[in-house]
């Protein structure tokens, strides 16, 4: 277990008493941040505000396909940003269809050019990478594009692309190395399959695609690929969106099915072979049923693996300084002040055990941590009622408990679920689905019918959910919800 | 009792229908009168009131048509190949919109029938406090008596009667949404939000549109007043936001004739309209021709033909609106009023609906809950939308003093604008808070895409007494526009650059 350690403990004396190499009293840096992603950069920039000497080490180990990217981490390069832009491209495809019903006229044949989209997206990402470098320079944060690995107390080794090694010492460290996509461990996976790390900069259209996995990454990618006109199949081992409200997850899946995404349920791939080389080539996937002996085969141009992400914590020398990690998951347990079991080592972001893998959470945690370290603040990161949105073709916004978790925690008789279908006004004229959008709130009867869960399935779910999250933070009750006037006509008024 | 109905509702619009249907739920005998006096141009429509037929619904749909025009341009940046030229056909859009509206008319008729509410398509007027009589279109007279009566007759667009030719040749929003053919080069005149929204979507679908403004856009409603100063909707006197909205419209292609007012409209042999106006800045008269002139100079309550004197119901002598108390009661105890017709209330569908429902619950459902008109959120659906809830900055300063309020603000860029290479100069938000103690939020203002969706949830927060620290504790959803609200930290007072930098 992790206890809060007092930094008054003198690590140097302890070290010497144990016969270990003493640590220098004057360090190169006040703070070294390992990982230049959402959490790491937020922490580094905040520390610089308090005139601390800060270094950021960021390095991207190339993907099995040889792909790499610049400063900014997952969100900026291979996560939220390119994902939302490609999702937008897919939504615009739908908008094109709708627009005809609203009087717009243009040729019947409308095709999508993958390269045009990808180039625009990559250009924008490039501008963000550049922006971060400039921001760090302006704030006098030292940045090195090098792989950081602990070698001893307070000491880290930084290896750059050319293999040149340098040693740095710091009073404190923040580990924010994030995660990378997991591979299946089957023949052909690393050679022929791609992951989200490769998809957003793929220099050719992926064509007929098999997406393996049922995470939000899998469904979001499958969603926009289908929206761009590609033939997409999703292979799911068991349930969709594990950890999310299952009723909502199933609705998302149904919608995707009705809108052209194929699902193969209860199968896992066991082998991937190349039938034909090319960009894209043709791959043959063999899969086995999880419920019997059935074997199926299929041919695809691209196989995208989205079965989960693993923390980058196993090869950064944590054992050298005694930082505990969960051996099974690789995640780092921390106390409620983001401190590891080693007093001068902290961690933020996706690598944390039992915390949410979201950019805004990492940023919030990183900033607050630094404010506590250097500005005398006491505010801890509030991980409760963090809102989130899944950008599937039919977007899903949520905050608070899922229905299952609420029932489990409070008992079915103590919760009330209010729900409603709705038909966005913008969908009426183009005659789009009139019973798919859905919203529900879960209330705790015993606590004044306090709203403990909010779920919405519909366009602009993120924009809708954000304000509700703020209201839930203020202790929103059903009665207050009822007495608030709706804005008309918008989806959120439902 | 001696009266035929428990409740008679005059006016089958948002407020009226909500009240009638709610009362019917309590097993009461309810009747609704609805009648649409054709506009001077001859336009009329079915049951449902302004919102459904000539307001929110067709407005938002045509706004959507315009937004889709922008989407078509964006789509090309996102890789979609669309052959040029792309053009818009008014009649296809109009038919789609009108068909949907008609389905709503039908839906309301069916609902009334299902709830056993009696519907009369007659124009009613009082003959005594419990009796309303009216003529059907065919001229047949019907008399209805009721224990309780709710007046919900709404408003109709005003005409600038001092402008020669205004009535003969101009149209209003009553006509715009029912035009079968394109209005062509249009001059919507004067500025109220109706005008900006219409000008916005007309520009968006490719029409040459000019807006003539006598003074300033979205002016404080104190002059052309249909909202009293006490219960102003958040976007009145909101100069900063109004400028941003109109600036965007100018860069979007809408022309503005500022500080001009029309003097006459004449019809030319070609069928086009010649408009003459006075340019107050240059002190000269100017003229130009247009296909269509649309007046959006305010709305007036529809009370003249009601014969309110026979019932003893008092109205505001200046506005003509019906005076009501906090329980929606008029000067006559059993006669009530809801919606746009009432003095001092926001002219919004959701408030009319809520007020109508609560009224029915108080009359027949043993409830005592009154309508809360504070912190009503709303949105102006201009090309770049503006949503708000609570006090405007000016109202907050007026109420608390500028030393006691803090305004947090930010200029941001929606992610979707980046690849589309769209200008985000006017994308802006501000939060007005009390400075002292817990820093309660007094008002929130947002300009950007999907403004209504963004503001709705925050309106709930404000209803719960949200404070600035609570807002900062709320984690953002990434990437959205709304998350920027939870990150507001630059104050106007500091004078610092409020542009949002990367995440």
Automatic annotation (TrEMBL), chain A:
Chain segments carrying region Disordered: 1-21
Annotated disulfide bonds: 75-80
Compositionally biased region (Basic and acidic residues): 1-15
Entry keywords, A to Z: Disulfide bond, FAD, Flavoprotein, NAD, NADP, Nucleotide-binding, Oxidoreductase, Redox-active center, Selenocysteine
Known catalytic reactions: H2O2 + NADPH + H(+) = NADP(+) + 2 H2O; [thioredoxin]-dithiol + NADP(+) = [thioredoxin]-disulfide + NADPH + H(+)
EC number(s) on file: 1.11.1.2, 1.8.1.9
Cofactor note: Binds 1 FAD per subunit.
FAD/NAD(P)-binding domain sequence ranges: 29-366
Enzyme class: oxidoreductase
Domain Pyridine nucleotide-disulphide oxidoreductase dimerisation per the UniProt entry, residue ranges: 386-493
Binding-site list for FAD: 84, 148, 350
Catalytic residues (UniProt): 488
GO biological process, one term: glutathione metabolic process
Function recorded in the entry: Reduces disulfideprotein thioredoxin (Trx) to its dithiol-containing form. Homodimeric flavoprotein involved in the regulation of cellular redox reactions, growth and differentiation. Contains a selenocysteine residue at the C-terminal active site that is essential for catalysis. Also has reductase activity on hydrogen peroxide (H2O2).
PANTHER family to which the protein is assigned, alphabetical: GLUTATHIONE REDUCTASE, THIOREDOXIN-DISULFIDE REDUCTASE
Similarity comment: family membership: Belongs to the class-I pyridine nucleotide-disulfide oxidoreductase family.
Name of the molecule in the record: Thioredoxin reductase 1, cytoplasmic
From TrEMBL, chain B:
Keywords of the record: Disulfide bond, FAD, Flavoprotein, NAD, NADP, Nucleotide-binding, Oxidoreductase, Redox-active center, Selenocysteine
Residues annotated to bind FAD: 60, 124, 340
NCBIfam families named in the record: TGR
Cystine bridges: 51-56
Superkingdom in the source lineage: Eukaryota
Pfam families registered for this protein in UniProt: Pyr_redox_2, Pyr_redox_dim
Binding site for NAD(+): 298
Active-site positions on this chain: 478 (proton acceptor)
Family matches, as Gene3D superfamilies: 3.30.390.30, FAD/NAD(P)-binding domain
Family: Belongs to the class-I pyridine nucleotide-disulfide oxidoreductase family.
CC annotations in GO: cytosol; mitochondrion
All copies of domain FAD/NAD(P)-binding, residue ranges: 5-356
Residue span(s) of domain Pyridine nucleotide-disulphide oxidoreductase dimerisation: 376-487
Originating species: Irena cyanogastra
A molecular function GO annotation: thioredoxin-disulfide reductase (NADPH) activity
Name of this protein: thioredoxin-disulfide reductase (NADPH)
A biological-process GO annotation: glutathione metabolic process
Entry's cofactor comment: Binds 1 FAD per subunit.
PANTHER family registered for this protein in UniProt: GLUTATHIONE REDUCTASE (PTHR42737), THIOREDOXIN-DISULFIDE REDUCTASE (PTHR42737:SF7)
EC identifiers of the protein: 1.8.1.9
Essential cofactor(s): FAD
């Amino acid at each position: 277990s992790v206890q809060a350690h007092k930094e008054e403990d003198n690590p140097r004396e302890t070290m010497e008493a144990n016969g270990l190499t003493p640590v220098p009293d004057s360090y190169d840096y006040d703070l070294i941040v390992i990982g230049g992603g959402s959490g790491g950069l937020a922490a580094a920039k905040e520390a610089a505000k308090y005139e601390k000497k800060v270094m950021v080490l960021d390095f991207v180990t190339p993907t099995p396909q040889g792909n790499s990217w610049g400063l900014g981490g997952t969100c900026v390069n291979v996560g939220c940003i390119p994902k939302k832009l490609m999702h937008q491209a897919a939504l615009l495809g739908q908008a094109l269809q709708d627009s005809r019903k609203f009087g717009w006229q243009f040729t019947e044949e409308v095709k999508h050019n993958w390269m045009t989209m990808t180039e625009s997206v990559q250009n924008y990402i490039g501008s963000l990478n550049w922006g971060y470098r400039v921001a760090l320079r302006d704030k006098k944060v030292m940045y090195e594009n090098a792989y950081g690995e602990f070698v001893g107390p307070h000491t880290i080794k930084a290896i750059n692309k050319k293999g040149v090694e340098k040693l740095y010492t710091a009073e404190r460290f923040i580990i924010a190395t994030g995660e990378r996509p997991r591979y299946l461990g089957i023949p052909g996976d690393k050679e022929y399959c791609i992951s989200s790390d490769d998809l957003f900069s793929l220099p050719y259209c992926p064509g007929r695609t098999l997406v393996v996995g049922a995470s939000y990454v899998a469904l979001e990618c499958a969603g926009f690929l289908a929206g761009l006109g590609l033939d997409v199949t999703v292979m799911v081992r068991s349930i969709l969106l594990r950890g999310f409200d299952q009723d909502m997850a199933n609705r998302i899946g149904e919608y995707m099915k009705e809108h052209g995404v194929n699902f193969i349920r209860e199968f896992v791939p066991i082998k991937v072979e190349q039938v034909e080389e090319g960009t894209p080539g043709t791959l043959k996937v063999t899969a086995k049923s999880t419920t019997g002996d059935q074997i199926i085969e299929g041919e695809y141009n691209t196989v995208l693996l989205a079965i989960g992400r693993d923390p980058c914590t196993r090869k950064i020398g944590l054992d050298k300084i005694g930082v505990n990690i969960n051996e099974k998951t690789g995640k780092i347990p921390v106390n409620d002040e983001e401190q590891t079991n080693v007093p001068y080592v902290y961690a933020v972001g996706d690598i944390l055990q039992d915390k949410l893998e979201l950019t805004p959470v990492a940023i919030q945690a990183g900033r607050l941590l630094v404010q506590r370290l250097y500005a005398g603040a006491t505010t801890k990161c509030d991980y409760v009622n963090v809102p989130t949105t899944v950008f599937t073709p039919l977007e899903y916004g949520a905050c608070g408990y899922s229905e299952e978790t609420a029932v489990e925690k409070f008992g079915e008789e103590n919760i009330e679920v209010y729900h409603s279908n709705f038909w966005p006004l913008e969908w009426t004229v183009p005659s789009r689905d009139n019973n798919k959008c859905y919203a529900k709130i879960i209330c705790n009867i015993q606590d004044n019918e306090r709203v403990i869960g909010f779920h919405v399935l519909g366009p602009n779910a993120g924009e809708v959910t954000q304000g509700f999250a703020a209201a839930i933070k203020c202790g929103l009750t059903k009665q207050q919800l009822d007495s608030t006037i709706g804005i008309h006509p918008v989806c959120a008024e439902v | 009792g001696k009266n035929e109905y428990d409740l008679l509702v005059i006016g089958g619009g948002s407020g009226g229908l909500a009240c009638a249907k709610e009362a019917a739920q309590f097993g009461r005998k309810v009747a609704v009168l609805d009648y649409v006096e054709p506009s001077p141009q001859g336009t009329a429509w079915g049951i449902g009131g302004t919102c459904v037929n000539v307001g929110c619904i067709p407005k938002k749909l045509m706004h959507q048509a315009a937004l889709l025009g922008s989407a078509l341009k964006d789509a090309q940046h996102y890789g979609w190949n669309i052959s040029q030229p792309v053009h818009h056909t008014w009649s296809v859009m109009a038919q789609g919109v009108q068909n949907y509206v008609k389905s709503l008319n039908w839906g309301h008729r069916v609902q009334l029938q299902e709830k056993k509410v009696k519907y009369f398509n007659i124009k009613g007027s009082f003959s005594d406090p419990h009796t309303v009589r009216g003529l059907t279109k065919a001229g047949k007279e019907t008399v209805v008596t009721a224990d309780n009566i709710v007046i919900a007759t709404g408003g109709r667009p005003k005409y600038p009667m001092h402008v020669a030719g205004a009535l003969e040749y101009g149209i209003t929003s009553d006509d715009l949404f029912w035009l079968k053919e394109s209005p062509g080069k249009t001059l919507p005149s004067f500025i109220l939000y109706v005008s900006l929204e219409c000008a916005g979507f007309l520009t968006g679908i490719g029409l040459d549109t000019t807006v003539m403004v006598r003074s300033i856009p979205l002016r404080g409603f104190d002059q052309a007043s249909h909202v009293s100063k006490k219960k102003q909707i958040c976007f009145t006197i909101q100069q900063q936001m109004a400028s941003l909205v109109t600036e965007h419209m100018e860069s979007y292609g809408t022309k503005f004739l500022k500080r001009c007012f029309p003097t006459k409209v004449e019809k030319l042999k070609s069928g086009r309209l010649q408009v003459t106006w006075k340019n107050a800045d240059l002190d000269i008269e100017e003229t130009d021709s247009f296909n269509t002139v649309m007046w959006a100079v305010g709305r007036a309550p529809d009370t003249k033909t009601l014969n309110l004197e026979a019932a003893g119901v008092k109205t505001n002598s200046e506005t003509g609106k019906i005076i009501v108390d906090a329980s929606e009661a008029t000067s006559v105890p059993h006669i009530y009023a809801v919606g746009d017709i009432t003095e001092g209330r926001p002219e919004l569908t959701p408030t009319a609906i809520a007020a109508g429902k609560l009224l029915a619950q108080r009359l027949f459902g043993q409830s005592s809950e009154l309508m809360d008109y504070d912190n009503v959120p709303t949105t102006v659906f201009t090309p770049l939308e503006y949503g708000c809830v609570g006090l405007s900055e000016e109202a907050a300063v007026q109420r608390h003093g500028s030393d006691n309020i803090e305004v947090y603000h930010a200029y941001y860029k929606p992610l979707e604008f980046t690849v589309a290479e769209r200008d985000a100069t006017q994308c802006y938000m501000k939060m007005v808070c009390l400075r002292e103690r817990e820093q309660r939020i007094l008002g929130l203002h947002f300009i950007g895409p999907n403004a209504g969706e963004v503001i709705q949830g925050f309106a709930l927060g404000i209803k719960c007494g949200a404070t600035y620290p609570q807002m900062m504790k709320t984690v953002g959803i990434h990437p959205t526009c709304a998350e920027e609200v939870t990150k507001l930290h630059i104050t106007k007072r500091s004078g610092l650059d409020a542009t949002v930098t990367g995440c």
